[in-house]
Amino acid sequence: MFFLLPLFQVAELVIDNCRSNEGEIDGFDDGFKELEYLSMINVGLKSLAKLPNLHKLLKLELSDNSISGGLDLLTEKCPNLVYLNLSSNKIKDYSTVEPLKNLAHLKSLDLYNCDISNPNDYRESIFKLLPHITYLDGFDRDDQEAPESDEEEGEEDEDGAGAAEEYYDDEDEDEEEEEEEEEEEEHEQEPDGEVGLSYLLKEEIQDDEDDDDYVHEGEEEEADDQENSATKGQKRKREAEDDGEDDE
């Protein structure tokens, strides 16, 4: 016997391998109204009569039980089912699964290892009986395997992570480019990349050298002027002597 307390906010419930009371689960009642996933694998279930109303339930696992009929109850209790696993139960006739055509949202049905799956035309007959389902025992009409929802979600997460990483990489590259541009501007403004005290000292030394050059140039000009004056004086002296000789 297995007793469950109602938890109104529970969305997923797994009670696999628990012991049922004469094929029913005691305490599993209408309190679980928010359930979207229910798994009752190998619990000795024989009937769905006491299955509570689970109008939000999307996925129901009932494999490895002893269910032989009463599937019409699912239309009333779980009208929004998308996935139903009845593998390894005691379902023998097509008429037993025919009520499932009233589950308008049902896309995947598993009847593997039930007596109904033995005939060679089993798959063709089920797809004809339930034309709205896409997958039977994990494969579609063209024998293409159904994708696993967990893998699909993993791929989406990787794509999202890749896009985020690419976004942040682009952002880092933009920041690096901006920093490089700023450094180039600073380099252009600073002569020969010299900054601080060393640059100022060099500038001061250059100014002193320019002053020395100016002083030397002035001294050279003054010496030239004195030399020219002396030359002119000697020339006048010779001219005066020549004039005296002429007078005599």
TrEMBL record:
Q: Does the keyword Nucleus apply?
A: yes
Q: Where is the composition biased (Acidic residues)?
A: 140-193, 205-227
InterPro entries attached here?
AN32 (IPR045081), Leu-rich_rpt (IPR001611), LRR_dom_sf (IPR032675)
GO BP terms, alphabetized? chromatin organization; regulation of apoptotic process
**Entry keyword set:** Chaperone, Chromatin regulator, Cytoplasm, Leucine-rich repeat, Nucleus, Repeat
Q: Does the keyword Cytoplasm apply?
A: yes
One GO cellular component term noted in the UniProt record for this chain: cytoplasm
Q: Give the residue ranges for region: Disordered.
A: 139-248
**Which GO molecular function terms does the record list?**
histone binding; phosphatase inhibitor activity
Q: Which PROSITE patterns match?
A: LRR
Spell out the subcellular localization from the entry: Cytoplasm; Nucleus
Coarse class of the protein's main subcellular location: cytoplasm
Which Gene3D superfamilies does the entry mention? Ribonuclease Inhibitor
One Pfam family this sequence matches: LRR_9
What is the annotated role of this protein in its UniProt record? Histone chaperone that specifically mediates the genome-wide removal of histone H2A.Z/H2AZ1 from the nucleosome: removes H2A.Z/H2AZ1 from its normal sites of deposition, especially from enhancer and insulator regions. Not involved in deposition of H2A.Z/H2AZ1 in the nucleosome. May stabilize the evicted H2A.Z/H2AZ1-H2B dimer, thus shifting the equilibrium towards dissociation and the off-chromatin state. Inhibits activity of protein phosphatase 2A (PP2A). Does not inhibit protein phosphatase 1. May play a role in cerebellar development and synaptogenesis.
Q: Which PANTHER family match?
A: ACIDIC LEUCINE-RICH NUCLEAR PHOSPHOPROTEIN 32 (PTHR11375), ACIDIC LEUCINE-RICH NUCLEAR PHOSPHOPROTEIN 32 FAMILY MEMBER E (PTHR11375:SF5)
Q: Which family does it belong to?
A: Belongs to the ANP32 family.
Q: What is this protein called?
A: Acidic leucine-rich nuclear phosphoprotein 32 family member
